[in-house]
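One such given next:

>
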Amino acid sequence: MVRIRYMRSPPPAQSALRALNPTVALQPYHRPPMRVLLLPAALLLVSGLISHHAHAQVESAAFPVAQLDASARTSSLGGHNPALVARGTGGLFVNPALLDASMHGSAEFTYLNHVSDISGGWLSYARNIERVGTAALGIRYMGFGDLDRLDASGNRLGTFSASDVGVTLSVSRPLRERLRYGTNLNWLRNSIDSEGAQALTVDAGALYHDPERRFSAGITLQHAGVVLSSIGSRRDDVPTDLRLGITKRLEHLPVLFSVTAYRLHDLEGGPDGSTALANIFYHVIPAAEFQFSEGFRIRLGYNHRRHDELKIKSRLDLAGVSTGVGVRVRRVAVDYGFTSWSSLGGLHRITIQTAIR
C-alpha cells in the first residue's frame, strides 16, 4: 500500500500523482522552449503548447492513462507507432487513421498490470457507418489502488483512492487508395479522492499504407485541447504529443522493422548537456517484429528515454527494453507485452482481439 500525505488543500495534480507512484524514478525538470514542428507531409499538424513535464514512463503527471501504450503489441515494440497497421481496433488510441473497413464489428481489450497496485484497461469497438466511414468507441481506465491518508505529522487518517478515465469517439475515412485520415475526440478525467481534473482533447492523424511494398508511414497529433478543470490552484496541462512513424516488412526475411519519432514538438527535450546525437535517441524508438507465420510473432523494442530515466544499476540495466509475443487462432488474437522498469519490476499487458459483429 502506498502512503502519501493528503492535506486539506490538495496539491496540484503533478505533485499528487508523483506521490501516487513513488517507484517511478523522476529526474529534475527543465522547461523546454515551446515549439511547433511543421512536417511537409500529407497533413499540416499544429501541436499544442506543453509545459511542466514529469520525466517518467507516465510522461506528464496529469491524465497518465492517455499516455500509456494501449495494447500489448505497441508496448512490446517500445511505444506507439502511428504507422503500425494491425487488425485490432486498439490502434485508434495511437492514430485514428489506423481504423479501416476491415475492422467492422471488431473489438479489442487490453489489461495492464503496472508496478505496485496500479492497473489499467483499454476497450474499443468499431463499426462501418455509411457516408461517415469507420467509427469507433474507446474507453480507458487506470486505478492506483488504496492510498493512505496522512496528516502533516504522518498520522494515518484512513484511505482514499485515485483513478484516471478516458472516453474516445473516433472516425476514419479513406482519402485515396493508399491514404487514410482520421480524428478522435477525447474526454479525460483524473480524480484524487473527492478532487478531479477534466480535459477535452482531439487527435488527428494520417496513414499511408502500401501493402504491395509492405510499407507504411503515419503521422499523428495526440491530445491537443484544453483543460476544463484542475486539481489544486495550479493549472494542469494536456499531454500533447506529435509522432511520426514508419514500418517496413523485408521481402526475403520474415521481419517487420518499426521506427517511431515522438515528442517532435519538443526537440530539445533531452537532458541538460546532452549532445545532438544523444538527443536524437531521446526521440526515436527502434523495434522489430519477427513474423514467423500469420499465427505466431515475436517482438522486441527499445526506448532510450525510458532507459535513461528509469535505470538504477550502474552496469547492465534492461530498463527501456520491451518484448512480447502474439498468437492468432482463426478469429481470435492474443498478444502479450512486457516492458522492463529495471529493478522496480516491469509492466505486463495482455490484449485480446476478435470480431464479434
Summary: The first strand starts at residue 2 and ends at 5.
